[in-house]
Structure formats: C-alpha cells, structure tokens
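Case study 2.
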Amino acid sequence: MMIQNLGDIRLFVEAASLGSLSAAGRKMGLSPAAASARLVKLEALLNTRLFERTTRRLRLTAEGALYLAHCQQALDALDDAHAALQAGRSAVGGKLRIAATSDFGRHVLQGWLEEFNRMHPQITLALILGDAVSNLLLDDLDLAIRFGVPQNSSMVARPLASNRRVLCAAPAYIAAHGMPTHPAELPRFACIVLSSASGMANEWRFEKDGQRESFIVPPAGARETNDGAVAREWAINGHGIVMKSIWDIGADLQAGRLRVLMPDWRTPDAPVHALYQRTRYMAPRVRALLDFLIARFEQAGVELEAILRQGDGA
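Prediction:
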C-alpha cells in the first residue's frame, strides 16, 4: 500500500461499510464529485473495478471484496501502530474479531472473553462461531481457535493446549444400554457424529498398549449434525454416544451430565491452536488476547486433567 493512496483506501473501506460512496465522502469531508474521482483514481491504479455501481446501490465486485479484506487489516494495523506510539503498548483497544468452534465458543470461550473484556474494557468483541474452518483474511478475523493440525501454512499456528478426545454418554443412556469396554462392542450402541462439507467424521480410532482398533459408525443409523453443541446436547439427552473434545465437555463431566467411556482406549489428540495472520506487526489487542488465552488454557488444562482422573477412576 503506497502512503499517497492511504486516503483513497480509507474512502474505499468506508464506502464498502456504508454501502454508499456519497455517505463515505461526507464522513471524510469530501463532496460526491471528489469522492467519485478518488475512487476512480484508485481503481485506475489497481486496474480493477472495485464496485458495481447503479443509481440505487453500491455492490463490491469479487475483486473488491478480496481487496477490502486486505485493506481493512492494513488500516487496522496502522491504527494500532499509531495508538501504540501515542499511548504505549499497554493501551489495548479497538474491535477484536475471534472465531471458534460452536460448542467450545459457547460454553467455554464466551466466558473467558467476558473475563478478558473486563481486563481490557476498551476492546469491543466480535465472536464468530461455526465448525467450518474460517479463512482469517476473507472473513476479516484477528484470531481463530481451532482443534487439530491446521492445513494452511500461510497462517501462524500457535499451540495452546493438548486436546484429548473421548467417547462419552449420559448416565441414563449407560444405565439403559450398558457401557462398552472394547471398540468391537460399539456396533450395538447408538452413535452421534459430526458432519461437515468434507463429509461425516464417522471413523473413530483407538489405541491401548500398542493395540490399535477403529470403528466406522454406520451413516444410516447415526444421528448426524454439523454443530458440535447439538451433538453434545443430544448425548446429554440420552440419544447415544459421541466423540467429543474434553474442552467441550469438561463442565458436563464435572456435573455428572456425561461420563467417559472406555477411558483406557486413547484416541488421537487434536491439539488446540490459535491461528492468526503472518504479519510483521501484531496488533496490541491480538497480543493481549493471545497472552491471556495461553495462561487461561494452561490453568484450565490442570482442572480438566483432575476431572478426567476422577472419571477414569469411576
């Protein structure tokens, strides 16, 4: 981004946000003619049409949407750098956009973010939940929390915690149907599985003392959802057994709503990562959140291990 075009870029971002070039111009003290001229100049420099214009609306082109994501991040970084120079690194504020899986986001992260926001009241939170993997750049995110090994090497993946995945079920379901002790017994139990655009996650793999077993949940007979929170609620309500991260079900294990099945059979870990853009400058708000999450995961991990030890001995 060339510094002489910074004003034009801010105008473009404002126009995309407001849906009106004249409104963006007024906000920046420009006449409609001046605003239009500056946008035309920017499009000529880029050799790209950024908006489809009609008399009634302003709509981003595909190229404009891509450019907007980059521009917004660049402007946020510049604003953060200016704030850091003016007030020091301790000044943490601005909009912080975080993505997480639905179950973990609702039942764990949301409470942590409230705690973080009390520490930094100048931050405004945006929490985007969903089990699909987000594109940080296109979705205009500062940070995403994901389970498993990220595939996109363009992002920085900071490990936050290990993540044991376990089979679990409600005590009422166990009382009615019994408790499996070996993967070979799983076909006689009702199962709940997660699905996504890439397919159904219905292959459950286990290991015990060097022995490896796997079980493929028959799709026709399984309850299926693309929302991890729904899968957990189905299990709590006694509809079957489910494979879940201990981060999602820690409170349910402690409260007795769920119990771990086959604790001696371990499943492959899917470590928790914080994903963020690979940039030379990390915004103070993102750095503050990352430091907070590292400490919070460490503390919560100790608590979860204690709950699991109790469950393993149950």
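Residues 284-312 form the longest helix (29 residues).
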